Sequence to fold (527 residues):
Amino acid sequence: MLVVPSFLPGPFAYASGAGTGHPTARRMTDSAASEPPEDRSRIDGELLRRIARRDRTAFAELYDRFSRPLYATALRILNDARESEDIVQEVFLALWEKAAVFEQERGSAFSWAVTLTRNRAIDRIRQRKRRTELLSASSPADLGYADAGGGDDSAEALVFKEKAGAVRAAVAGLPAEQQRALQLAFFSGLTQQEISEKLGEPLGTVKARIRRGLLRLRETLSRRT
Amino acid sequence: MIDERTEEFAALHAFDLLEGAEKVAFEARLAGDPKLQALVRELRESASALAFSAPVAAPGSGLKARLLEQISGSSQAGSGAKLLPFRLPTLIPWAVAASLAVLAAWLGQNLLATRADADALRLESRLAQLAQRDAENRLAAERIILGQEVRNSGQQLADARQQLADTANQIVAVNQHAAEIAQQLKTQADLAQFKIATLSSMLGNSPQALAVAVWNPARQEGLLTVEKLPALAKDQDYQLWVVDPKYKDPVNGGVFSVDPDGVARVQFKPDQPITSVVKFAVTRERKGGVAKAEGPFVLLSQ
Fold:
């Protein structure tokens, strides 16, 4: 059985309906915090199916749910607000165009959207940087959790922060070397070998840390459901 | 049961860190393993959760509007415009301004549409590149695997041929060995049937004369070796006789002479088939021998 962490897809909690006026969006906003975890993935999938039928309201609703974590991911990878917005824009256009090919059995809509975002951001950073610059730009020391969006007190922002806090707590519970391996694997755009060189550890050790870290993260997050 | 190495591949796959043949091989296994598919889904969901570990940030407020405009394909401009009374002199500057505004709006809209088209084209291009790269990787991996299989098959065929040749050689060697053993057995059997007899002198003037006769009943022939037998006159020969109870008289084994040292070594073959040898005898006869012994006995076996 697929284990979907309780905060996933977190953007359920961000849904505000603002700007759409759609009653469904408003209802989801009000109930976002209390949405049963098992419903979240299903609702996202339903929104994608409506988007496949060219439902703009569903598109706006999905934007409210996904845009923050996707943008935060792109920004963490690219460290450039304008480029990160471009990436998010590309991803939502891709969701609009490709919603019909989405298969819920292969993973959640949120996971799909994160993968699209991450791949595009990494492609872009690889295009714009030489490999040596890429290596130096992904310092493990730069893995702090300094918030950049502290001034936004909207309901969506607050829920986002709450979910982010939960994930960070789970990550913080991992041994430091596993945290570093996972962060580099997810945000750096480096290959296995490059991560190994960056950490100064044998490739086999790095692979083992990624495996153990991810399995433990899965276990920790699933306990929250 | 999924082993640690497979879990490792699944974790790397969740971060899209597998490459080349490793990736193709894992995806091939993944396609046929529902349990592994479930693990990969869970790990990818967990990996996606790391999106929340990025510093909190939100896109600009205009992005949503731009997106909605892009997907709508057209704006609803001008739907709520008010109609004003026509006052030509005073409205000319306004008309110019309005025209400029309309022009600006039109240009802006074209710009957005162009940007959307460019974004869509860029997206399609990137998807096509990814698909092409994936296909190339798959083809390369399949080519490598196929080449390896062909090489393996060729090697197996060569090994099988070599084994066949070795086996044939072994069969030839075994047959040859068996023939040698059979020959040895036959020789041993023949030797067992050989009759060896010592002939002693019957002459008073050469008591040291001695002869040995070896008889091979299978081949009906024998070998006679003589030493210290006196030389004969030119008109005389020694004659060998084989005594077989089957015949009334001894059977002629042939004539021979000795060298000045009294030595002779002759191969003999009796005139009649011999069933059983009782004795060998040597007589002194006239030159050329006789059909029935006439002269005195020179040697006689025990």
Q: What stands out?
A: DSSP finds ten helices and no strands in chain A. The domain at 10-158 of chain A is CATH 1.10.1740.10 (Rna Polymerase Sigma Factor; Chain: A). Residues 1-31, 139-150 of chain A have pLDDT under 50 and may be disordered. Residues 56-78 of chain A form the longest helix (23 residues).
